[in-house]
Amino acid sequence: MEYFKNIGKIKFEGESSNNPLAFKYYDPEKIVSGKPMKEHLRFAMSYWHTLTGEGSDPFGTGTMERPWNELSGLEKSKLRADIGFELMEKLGVEYFCFHDLDIAPEGDSLKEKNKNLDEMVAYIEGLMEKTGIKCLWGTTNAFTHKRFVHGASTSPNADVFAYAAAQVKKAMEVTQKLGGENYVFWGGREGYETLLNTNTELELDNLGRFLQMAVDYKEKIGFTGQLLIEPKPKEPTKHQYDFDTSTVIGFLRKYNLQDHYKLNIEANHATLAMHTFEHELNMARINGMLGSIDANQGDLLLGWDTDQFPTNIYDAVLAMIEVLRNGGIAPGGLNFDSKVRRGSFEMDDLFYAYIAGMDTFAKGLLIADQIVSDGKFDKLMKERYSSYESGIGAKIVSGEVGFEELAEYAQELGEIKNTSGRQELLENILNQYIYK
Ligand code: XLS
Ligand code: NI
Ligand code: NI
Q1: How far apart are CA 106 and CA 114, in angstroms?
Q2: pTM, whole model, 2 decimals?
Q3: Which of 208, 225, 244, 403 pairs with 292 at a CA distance of 20 to 30 A?
């Protein structure tokens, strides 16, 4: 069955095209710095925002006009899967990401839920085989159901901890079965509202224990995917434990998990933490922990996770510079953890949304590649830090001097001379690359 009868495969038509159903920049096989564009970008569809989101908000019900709206149970899940794979195939999106709950109905018990999952996994395997589409990552939804009201692995209720473990166990098995290249932990409700009722020390220790159990189980079943943690500073709880990249890295080191986990950085979560997207990518990269990306963008005027499709070229360029400097993002990828606006409720809107996001990152990659290969910024950066290459700076870096030697040296200094940071000059240069 073909659902989008009037939309064929989306093709690359180049900058001069006015066809809204064509790529202007995303040319999957084009070689950029030694490999095809699609291998740099590794685009993925988020199953939840694309197929299960209904467009509801705290003031109104769902608006999305979806052909599965009238269906229920496994029938609904199957139609979603069929249409999701058609959408990916036509867009040339080669990966998908999912929560267990996205692909199969919950059922009345854990047993039934797992049975539904098995049936849907077999069904999706068939679609994967037919289309060649792969699984970038899987995860579990341990935040929607009311049992997770006080958290999952950080719940004060040990039964909830156990239930969450059962869910992750199954979701990891399912991800392995689907050949998933990563497994993601986003904190969900792992956080708190008030210290008046919260033992943060026990909750964090439990989160550490939980993530260690995940490592142990991964090794036991021989799952080879990369484990990822996705930071987010707030929403749904006031204080999310996985606040931002640096917090997560500190946490991983405290619980000796740093060799087993990397980070999945989401643009909108970065800005909610009052960081730029590129700051978070950079912090993960310099610590050797940049694993994958949730590509989206927030709204400067709204203080929550609006998860919009990314269209900001500056953000895309600065993000792709980090990806290139990281030597690529594989086995991670660029998952569009993005949703169409509530007012964009027709099925075709999904195409326009993905095309916008893919073109933005394709153009971002092209510009970032020029910037990195020209090396202009590198050269200026090297000059800026050149005082560490000889003299006292070189001695600081090599560990040859301490406070006493430095104090002696400083005493002999006349007035210290600094040089300009030249931020505006650099911004002009960046603009030149972007405007071209
Ligand atoms: C929510 C998160 C979520 C994760 C997967 O804000 O971005 O969608 O990516 O659980
Ligand atoms: Ni996300
Ligand atoms: Ni998010």
Answers
A1: 8
A2: 0.97
A3: 208
